[in-house]
Amino acid sequence: MSRGITGFVKERLAQALAARRLSQNTLAAMVGVSPPTVSKWRSGDQAPEPEALERLASVVALSSEWFTRRIHPTASQPLFRSRASVHASARLHLETRLEWAHEFASALTEFVDFPDVVLPTRAFEDPNEITESHIEEAADELRTLWRLGRREIPDLVLAAESAGIIIVRELTEITKVEGLSAWRSGRTQHLSRGPRLRDITGSNPVADFSFKVPV
Asked: pTM (2 decimals)?
């Protein structure tokens, strides 16, 4: 890296672009630099100068320091549950938000003692092996583990949090994706759209996504 600040992590820029759904050209115009400059930042050939980094951070609503944080180990390839084809940028956007949810959960574990994670365990190595019947069996086992009985679940969020699951809720305009899941370090991450909660609990629908991240 020939110029700019020390410790700039190029992958953070890629995350910011995906999470904010910005193109390199749009970001360049907003920051006040040329598109080739942003391309160099993204490739790691060059890092932003301090002033440019401040503008970049302001544009994407993140701190300057965030661009120097190390990247956490990546999860498995996410599996999407979609009602229709979804644009690649929308998928990348949701994948990045899921990555951030994991970082948020990991940071909280340094300060908060969460309940032990209580979830069914399976020996699948490839998520593609999972069938609808496997899901139904796991759901039935989950009711037993969480002592929910066979009744309607009045508050699924409370039940999940009591089982050591962190839930982060964010608004999104991506309506074609019902959910996505990924594995990381032996734990599962799941991002589901609000109406799925209504289907289970019978409560009013919500128009957002909920990150469910076991810690």
From this structure: 0.71
User: What SS3 string covers the chain?
Assistant: CCCCCCCCCHHHHHHHHHHHCCCHHHHHHHHCCCHHHHHHHHHCCCCCCHHHHHHHHHHCCCCCHHHHCCCCCCCCCCEEEECCCCCHHHHHHHHHHHHHHHHHHHHHCCCCCCCCCCCCCCCCCCHHHCCHHHHHHHHHHHHHHCCCCCCCCCCHHHHHHHCCEEEEEEECCCCCEEEEEEEECCEEEEEEEHHHHHHHHCCCCCCEEEEEEEC
Q: What is the pLDDT of residues 116-152, one digit of tens each?
A: 888 888 888 777 888 999 989 999 999 999 999 998 9
Per-residue confidence (pLDDT) for residue 185, from 0 to 100: 54
